[in-house]
Design brief:
395 residues; Rossmann fold; Immunoglobulin-like; 2 domains; 8-stranded mixed sheet; globular; binds adenosine-5'-diphosphate; binds magnesium ion
Length: 395
Amino acid sequence: MRVILFSGKGGVGKTTVSASTAYRLSSLGYKTIVVSLDPAHSLADAFDIPEEERVRAKGLPIRVKDGLYIQEIDIQEEVDRYWGDVYRFLELLFNTTGLDEVVSEELAILPGMEEVTSLLYVNKYYREKQFDVLVLDLPPTGESLRFVSMPTVLKWYMKKIFHVERTILRVARPVARRLTDVPLPDDEYFKALENFYERLKGVDEILIDPEITSVRLVANPEKMVLKESQRAFMYFNLFGVNVDAVIVNKVLPPLVGECGHFSKWFLTQQKYLEDMQSLFYPVPLFKVPLLEDEVVGEERLKILSDLIYGDADPIRVFHKEKPYEFIEEDGRFVIKLKAPFLTKEGLTVLKSEGEIVVRWRNFKSHIMLPRKLRNYEPAGARIEGNYLKVFLSKA
Ligand SMILES: Nc1ncnc2c1ncn2[C@@H]1O[C@H](COP(=O)(O)OP(=O)(O)O)[C@@H](O)[C@H]1O
Ligand SMILES: [Mg+2]
């Protein structure tokens, strides 16, 4: 099974692009389900599903046609159905230290119910093997990031808790409480927690396997959207989730853009389109024009899917391999960037507005620094095989 996630700022077209992608996939014969976490529930709107049908579904899958299902998750239903208690316990767990330092600083945010629920669904559908593809329409960026960071946090915790046998724990609870810095669950929580862990187990491996999971960032060529997409790009990278495409949606077509009222918009978009090549290097950009009207109903979803993918099959992995990594080497933080073509001549590395900028001839790459490394600067670089290593030191 493939898992394709769409992430991006609110309003850029995530739900529409998710729906179009799912439409194309099912037309190609893949059994497809598209799941949305958007509380605004616009997925059913994109497919023009009648209100009473969506109400009847209560957050469970709705069949659009053969091989195509949509599901708008209803968080309240999920909590009632499954696991209010577990979530309250998790809240306690997440106030933690001890994760890998770079990662933990990025985790100041508590994962929400939506993220946990969608992870459970990713695992459920993956295990059941009913579908060939799961398309996930994530909520706006902030929450998407909590979504990918979830498994890392959980894994760390679960390891700490579950390495002790449950029975031993019951006997030794008073001692264990004193010996570990981990809050231990009461018995009533334990069963629920174990069950929850069982249902979540392995989801991190699904998410970081580039053959299974791809993130496609949806963006518009505008400053504010770009900044957010760049941050998302950095996070997904940091958590090892493969970003295989950036979908640049709502690009003004030249005929609209060059005349009259929109000519300034057109120029602004062109400038950002150019920047995006280096901001997301080497991930491919898919440019999608702004259509003459909103995208509702299968016919328009089909038109949009043709514009997004051309002849390409959306199930493909369009790009694989981390564009860059933050590693630690001899006590120093290092950015390791894949760039097989670089030579020393004319190479410059500098810091600008929280980013490391690498320039070489026409090539330019921007790497946003995680919060933890904000105060670091490049202090030398070295080409090693196909990689450029940029050594960082505190400013
Ligand atoms: N390429 C496009 N051309 C015209 N309208 C679009 C396009 N992409 C999205 N839209 C419209 O923009 C609005 C917001 O899209 P939506 O997918 O709901 O955004 P998001 O899920 O990111 O918040 C919808 O009315 C949708 O029909
Ligand atoms: Mg949406």
